[in-house]
Amino acid sequence: MNGNLAEKIVVEDESTSGKHQKFPDPKKWHKQDTTWGLSLFGTAIGAGVLFLPINAGAGGILSLLFITILAFPVMYFSHRAFAKIIYASKAADEGITGTIREYFGTKASIIFNIVYFLCIYTIVLMYSVALTNTASSFIVNQLHFNEPPRAILSLVLVLGLIAIVNFGQDITVKVMSMLVYPFIVSLIFISIYLIPQWHLSNLSFSGVSTASTGQSLLGMLWMLFPIVVFSFNHSPMISPFVIKQRATYGIEATDFKCAQIQKYTYIMTVTVVMFFVYSSVLSLSPHDLELAKEQNLSILSYLSNRLHLPVIVYAAPIIAFVAITKSFLGHYVGAFEVMRDIIIESGRARGKEIKEKTVKTTILAFVILTCWYTAYTNPSILGLIDNISGPLIAIILCILPMYAIRKVPVLAKYRGKFSNIFVTVLGIITVLACLKSFF
């Protein structure tokens, strides 16, 4: 990798109104590219990865191979399409919301914000369930105490998390960002540590999912799309990534540079994630993975309960708790900002200026009550991913970019590519997956 920024090329940047600016050579790899590659890498590997092995292995070797083949193209082509519609926009500096407003108008941007909020907030609710289950499992299985009342435990956890982020949001975000790489290192360490526990006999051809539920192999593979889209999603990071590349390398070189960074980053991401998935699946039988799904636990919590290994017993649930906490707080911050904007804008549309304190109080009350109720009722985490989170992410990450490329004139240069067909089909299949439960 070459971090020398001395060599420059002259590129005409449309934002400079005809003036010439000097930009780094986009064909070379610079220090900033490494920084952004690691940022994408850290963002892409989140707590959602802790639930991927459960679905990946419960269907046997066929589902595992299917995800292995699908992982990179799903991640690369969908996020490339998302990046394209942003850096082609004159409002790219305003992120995806400004881009949607430019392409489709104010009403469309409002609808997008609502869908985007539902997408993020469903994940917040899901992680409130995961946190409660992780804490409860740790108290019972590792500390050997009686299981605490779920209503009290879930309320304490939700109030504690909300108190942390409201005590100092900026500090909290920085601390959570610092935990990204230790979490990834921990996943790699656990993956290696589990190698002596690998058994090829765990890789059956049918798995437990198809046998126990009676669903067809095709139906089982169909339901893998939401978890794959969810696990590898990091679309909120694409806007700042694109904005920075456009400012650094110029508009003409942004496409090439984004593709270059994303390709190498996603190869590294898929390698790490799939190593963790394979290591987890080879260490547990398909029946164990089905039990993890029934118990509504992350793979790390179940591993700590199932395998009596010194490091796994205590380290795995703690890593899971920290990872899920980090993801909860990160998504909460995003959901809070979107909800705040929606409330303020809706008030202004009716000629009312809502006070900031009133908005914050309303949001806090809504978050606490909904997160507490959801954590208490303990809905299936994988069910939420399959029926809500995965399809909503697919709408934003796959269907929206493909619709924009087809309809917006400035994006016409991106039409006619095979990858467009792949992303479109991916989006449709994932969205339709939420309807499968009705059949």
TrEMBL record:
InterPro entries the UniProt entry points to: Amino_acid_transport_2 (IPR018227)
Where would you find this protein in the cell?
Answer: Cell inner membrane
Give membrane topology per the record: Multi-pass membrane protein
Q: Which UniProt keywords apply?
A: Cell inner membrane, Cell membrane, Membrane, Transmembrane, Transmembrane helix, Transport
One biological process term from GO is:
amino acid transmembrane transport
Record bears the keyword Transport = yes
Primary location = membrane
Q: Any transmembrane segments, and where?
A: 36-54, 60-77, 110-130, 150-167, 179-200, 220-243, 264-287, 307-329, 358-376, 388-406, 418-438
Gene Ontology terms: cellular component? plasma membrane
State the name under which the record lists this protein.
Answer: Serine transporter
Provenance organism: Neobacillus massiliamazoniensis
